[in-house]
C-alpha cells in the first residue's frame, strides 16, 4: 500500500485510529501507538502559544522595565570600572527585565519573548547612555555608547540572562 501523504512511498504501516496508510516520515508516535498527523492532533503547549495581546503586554513590560532600570543604572551607578561588579549588575538587570516580561505574559515562553527581553535590556543601556550624556557636558550619546566596554559586558550578560528567563 502507498502512504496517503507521500504516494511514492510504499509502506506497511497504518494509523492505529483511522487506518490511513502512513510512512515513517508521517508517523507520530503517541502513548497509544502510531498515528497519522491528523489523528495525533499535535499542538503546541499552551505555554509556547503567544497571542498578539500577550506579545504586546510583554513588549510594553520589557520596554518599561528597561527604561526604568536604565534610569536607575545611569543615575545611581553611572560607571562600573570593575568587571566583577559589571557581571553582577548584568545578572541583576537581565533577571529583572526577564522577570517583568515573564510576569506580564502570564509566564509564557518562546523565541518572540526572548527577543522582547533582549530589546528591554538594550533599552536600559540606551536610556543609561542618554542619562550619562545629559549629565556630562561635551559628550553625546554615541561617545558614551562607543567608549563603555564594561557597559557592553553588562548588556551582553543581561541579554543572555533575560532571554534565559523566558526560554
Number of alpha- plus pi-helical segments: 6
Q: Specify the structural class.
A: mainly alpha
What letter string, H or E per element, gives the SSE order? EEHHHHHH
Helix content: 55-70%
Give a count of the beta strands, DSSP E runs of length 2 or more.
2
Q: What is the rounded Rg?
A: 24 Å
> Could you tell me the strand content as a percent range?
under 5%
Numbering strands along the chain, what is their spatial order in the largest sheet? 1-2
Q: Tell me the major beta sheet.
A: 2 strands, antiparallel
Protein model, in words:
- The protein has about 170 residues and is mainly alpha-helical.
- The protein has 2 domains: about 1-40, no CATH class; about 45-165, no CATH class.
- About 60% of the residues lie in helices and about 5% in strands.
- The protein is built from 6 helices and 2 strands, in the order ββαααααα.
- It has helices spanning about 35-40, 50-75, 85-105, 110-135, 140-145, 150-165; strands spanning about 30, 35.
- Strands 1-2 form a two-stranded antiparallel sheet.
- A hairpin with a 2-residue loop joins β1 (about 30) and β2 (about 35).
- α3 packs across α4 (about 110-135) and α3 (about 85-105) runs parallel beside α6.
- It starts with about 25 loop residues before the first strand and ends with a helix.
- The model has no long low-confidence stretch (mean pLDDT about 90).
Amino acid at each position: 500500500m502507498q502512504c496517503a501523504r507521500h504516494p511514492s512511498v510504499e509502506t506497511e504501516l497504518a494509523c492505529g485510529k483511522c487506518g490511513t496508510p502512513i510512512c515513517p516520515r508521517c508517523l507520530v508516535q503517541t502513548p497509544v501507538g502510531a498515528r497519522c498527523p491528523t489523528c495525533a492532533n499535535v499542538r503546541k503547549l499552551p505555554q509556547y502559544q503567544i497571542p498578539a495581546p500577550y506579545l504586546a503586554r510583554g513588549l510594553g513590560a520589557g520596554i518599561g522595565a528597561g527604561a526604568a532600570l536604565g534610569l536607575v543604572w545611569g543615575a545611581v551607578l553611572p560607571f562600573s570600572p570593575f568587571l566583577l561588579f559589571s557581571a553582577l549588575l548584568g545578572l541583576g538587570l537581565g533577571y529583572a527585565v526577564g522577570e517583568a516580561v515573564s510576569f506580564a505574559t502570564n509566564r509564557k515562553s518562546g523565541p518572540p519573548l526572548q527577543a522582547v527581553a533582549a530589546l528591554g535590556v538594550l533599552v536600559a543601556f540606551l536610556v543609561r547612555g542618554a542619562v550619562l550624556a545629559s549629565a556630562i557636558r561635551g559628550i553625546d550619546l554615541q561617545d558614551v555608547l562607543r567608549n563603555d566596554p564594561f557597559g557592553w559586558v553588562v548588556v551582553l550578560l543581561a541579554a543572555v540572562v533575560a532571554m534565559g528567563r523566558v526560554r
